[in-house]
Automatic annotation (TrEMBL):
Its EC number is 1.4.3.13. Residues 21-50 are annotated as: Disordered. This is protein-lysine 6-oxidase. GO terms for cellular component: extracellular space; membrane. It holds the Pfam family SRCR. Its main location: secreted. PROSITE patterns: LYSYL_OXIDASE, SRCR_1, SRCR_2. It catalyses: L-lysyl-[protein] + O2 + H2O = (S)-2-amino-6-oxohexanoyl-[protein] + H2O2 + NH4(+). Disulfide bonds join 96-160, 109-170, 140-150, 236-300, 280-290. It comes from Daphnia pulex. The lineage of its organism: Eukaryota, Metazoa, Ecdysozoa, Arthropoda, Crustacea.
């Protein structure tokens, strides 16, 4: 993968070495003509020369810090796809998929010499993370030369699990060594690589079951793949998420998916794997209606514990954002960066704001940003409380705002133009999930004061008022016009819900020179 990079470095090294040798030869007059040595000695000299080249490359990389920040993709079926790893402080580490999108993937593919990016991947699509996470919550513009040029939480600061590894699928380009044989689609009767419905291979009457759990609501997922009583196969955990787990729980009449795990905790032999690349929309009645990539001789990426498992529950939370409140409270505000320094620490402004800070280290705080502010009121209409997915002792303390983040990514805010291109965005961390207002005689349970428990009770709402930091979208860089405004709650689907079909509010945004308004809002699937 790094052949072209190493060749360029080697050429530079050899150039420096040849200059030094030329200078020494000019300073030294030969005393006598050297005899030609035997061929065997010449062969030894060639071997030593190749060894010297390798040592020279390694020495040059270390001397110039070229290894620091280098990325690679691993565990893919082809060399242009896989989970992304980055080198820092002498060790390789994984990258978390929080905030991971096409822009970060573009930087990775460009750095590796590919012509373009095809897709970013989430949920450890190519197996569980092999190393601890070096990076989390990456924010790239897309034009950076290296991931280290992007904003992120800091080296080794992460709340991610091994099932949250970020990955990429790059488009082969001139610098890629992909061959036609590697990219061809297998057409044998035992293995398929194209995404097809499971019922086309197994049949519409295919069965599933859970095994190895401590109760009937949990276990590894097994699929009936033959006519014999023992013909049951496992599902590879590549990309296994709450969407697929939800279909399994619904089909087995076990309620809702509480967890979608990639683990061998519930047993299972890797040699029994029969399916991989299973993908569901989430609304299917049966797992047979979902797509899959491979069947039969499955090559499951990652280590031995990459087996699809589920934990089901009869009761579940269901968050619903209030579209009317967003329309009522939306307004513009112009504010200097001096008053937005805490928000800048939490990456709540557009990339141009950070560029201003870099270009003008003395006067950047006088720059004015235009913010589209609005109130987000989130109701729990489910049958169970909504709670953060990470334990309390792992909540992150933000000194500037003087509060804990129980979820680093609780909401995404996007503005999209008529071509479907995202032109502005924002995000909100859940610094305080609590019961602000409750109905049906429900008593509030969750309070954030004094490091209290966080969550949203059933029939209660959590409200982020428009005057709170980061409760906005920085629209400084977009022109007045008509856009699509989108707010997504629980955008990375890390916390289980009854349904994700009502987690997004989509509105029409009219942005004028002096004011902005939202209208035609509706609840949609993210």
């Amino acid at each position: 993968m790094y052949l072209s990079i190493l060749l360029a470095i080697l050429a530079e090294c050899e150039g420096q070495q040849q200059q030094e040798q030329l200078q020494r030869r000019q300073q030294r007059q030969p005393q006598q003509q050297q005899r030609q040595r035997p061929t065997r000695e010449g062969t030894r000299r060639q071997r030593r020369h190749r060894t010297d080249k390798a040592k020279l490359i390694q020495h040059y990389l270390k001397k110039n810090g070229r290894l620091e920040g280098m990325v690679r993709i691993v565990d893919g079926l082809r060399e242009n796809e896989g989970n992304v790893e980055i080198y820092h402080s002498g060790k390789w580490g994984s990258i978390c998929d929080d905030e991971w999108d096409i822009r970060e993937a573009t930087v990775v593919c460009r750095e590796l010499g590919y012509s373009d990016v095809v897709q970013e991947t989430h949920n450890s699509m190519y197996g569980p993370a092999r190393y601890p996470f070096w990076m989390d919550n990456l924010y790239c513009v897309g034009g950076e030369n290296n991931l280290t040029d992007c904003r992120f939480d800091g080296w080794g600061i992460s709340d991610c699990e091994e099932s949250e590894a970020a990955g990429v699928i790059c488009k082969p380009g001139p610098l890629s060594r992909l061959t036609a044989q590697q990219t061809s689609t297998t057409t044998s009767t035992t293995t398929t690589t194209a995404s097809t419905m499971m019922q086309d291979i197994i049949g519409s009457k295919g069965k599933i079951r859970l095994r190895g759990g401590r109760s009937k609501e949990e276990g590894r997922v097994e699929v009936k793949i033959g006519n014999n009583a023992n013909d049951w196969g496992l599902i590879c955990g590549d990309g296994w998420s709450l969407f697929e787990a939800g279909v399994v729980c619904r089909e087995l009449k076990l309620g809702y998916a509480q967890n979608a795990l990639q683990t061998d905790f519930f047993g299972g032999n890797r040699s029994s794997l029969a399916l991989s690349g299973v993908k569901c929309h989430g609304s299917e009645k049966s797992l047979m209606d979902c797509l899959h990539d491979r069947f039969g001789a499955v090559s499951c990426p990652g280590n031995a514990n990459n087996i699809a498992t589920v934990v089901c529950a009869s009761e579940m939370a269901d968050l619903v954002p209030d579209a009317q409140e967003m329309m009522r409270t939306a307004h513009l505000e112009d504010r200097q960066l001096f008053f937005l320094q805490c928000a800048m620490e939490e990456n709540c402004l557009a990339a141009s704001a950070y560029q201003v800070q870099k270009d003008d280290p003395y006067g950047w705080h006088l720059e004015t940003r235009r913010l589209l502010r609005f109130t987000a009121r989130i109701a729990n209409m489910g049958t169970a409380d909504f709670k953060p997915f990470i334990p309390k002792h792992m909540w992150e303390w933000h000194a500037c705002h003087m509060h804990y983040h129980s979820m680093e990514v609780f909401a995404h805010f996007d503005i999209i133009n008529s071509l479907g291109v995202k032109v502005a965005e924002g995000h909100k961390a859940s610094f305080c999930l609590e019961d602000n207002q409750c109905t049906h005689n429900t008593e509030p349970v969750y309070k954030c004061a004094n490091y209290g428990d966080q969550g949203i009770s059933v029939n209660c709402t959590d409200t982020y008022h428009h005057n709170i930091d980061c409760q906005w979208i920085d629209i400084t860089d977009i022109d007045p016009g008509i856009y699509t405004f989108k707010v997504v709650i629980n955008p990375e689907f890390k916390v289980a819900e009854m349904s994700f079909d009502n987690n997004a509010v989509v509105c029409t945004l009219y942005y004028g020179q002096q004011y902005a308004t939202l209208f035609n809002c509706s609840l949609q699937r993210p």
